[in-house]
Amino acid sequence: MSNETTITGHPAKTIEVVAAVMVRDGKVFATQRGYGEFKGWWEFPGGKIEPGECPQEALRREIHEELDAEIAVGDLLKTVEWDYPTFHLTMHCYLCTLTSDSVHLNEHADAAWLTRDNLYSVQWLPADVEVLEEIEL
Q1: Considering the domain 14-132, what is its CATH architecture?
Q2: 65-99 b/e with 16+ CB inside 10 Å = b?
Q3: Those residues with Cβ within 8 angstroms of residue 50's Cβ, 6 or more apart along the chain or in another chain
Q4: Considering just the CA atoms, what is the radius of gyration of the chain in Å?
Q5: Domain coordinates of the chain in residue numbers?
Q6: CB 131 within 8 A of CB 119
Q7: Could you report the per-residue pLDDT of 55-98, keeping only the tens digit for each?
Q8: How far apart are CA 89 and CA 10, in angstroms?
Q9: Residue 112 class from Cβ within 10 Å (0-12 exposed, 13-18 middle, 19+ buried)?
Q10: Which of 37, 44, 111, 126 is the most buried (most CB within 10 A)?
Q11: Largest CA distance in the chain
Q12: CA 85/CA 92 separation, integer angstroms
């Protein structure tokens, strides 16, 4: 399938990803993309599910690759369906706990623990904004 828009107006390509929603001490962990079409935008860390992986395995692998960190994956918080201009995104967002003492940004330009007061001070990717409404800080 190409990236062309179908006759219904929806993108033809679908990407399925997982995202880690980490909340600690009234703050939520966010990362700033350091590459690609959405470079500079903020998101919940995570990535694509590889063939044969369950979402939780994919999330642990992605966080290890992106942040050199370990997480405990909890409950599914929300699945977001979002149409970007060139693809449809299915994003499974899990409540997670960071179990490592530190993180190292291998792919991201920046990361921050955001409070309720500065949660919207960064430019979130549109699909991730839907998740913010589900988080209690």
Answers
A1: Alpha-Beta Complex (3.90)
A2: ebbebebebeeebbebeeeeeeebbebbbbbbebe
A3: 58, 61
A4: 15
A5: 14-132
A6: no
A7: 999 999 999 999 999 999 999 999 999 999 999 999 999 999 99
A8: 11
A9: middle
A10: 44
A11: 49
A12: 20
Please give the backbone phi and psi of residue 131, each rounded to the nearest 5 degrees, phi first. Answer: -75, -35
Residue 90 pairs with which residues in a beta bridge?
16, 81
Is the distance from CB of 131 to CB of 45 less than 8 angstroms? no
Residue type for position 61: R
Query: pLDDT value at position 9?
Result: 61
DSSP annotation of 124: B
pLDDT of residue 12: 75
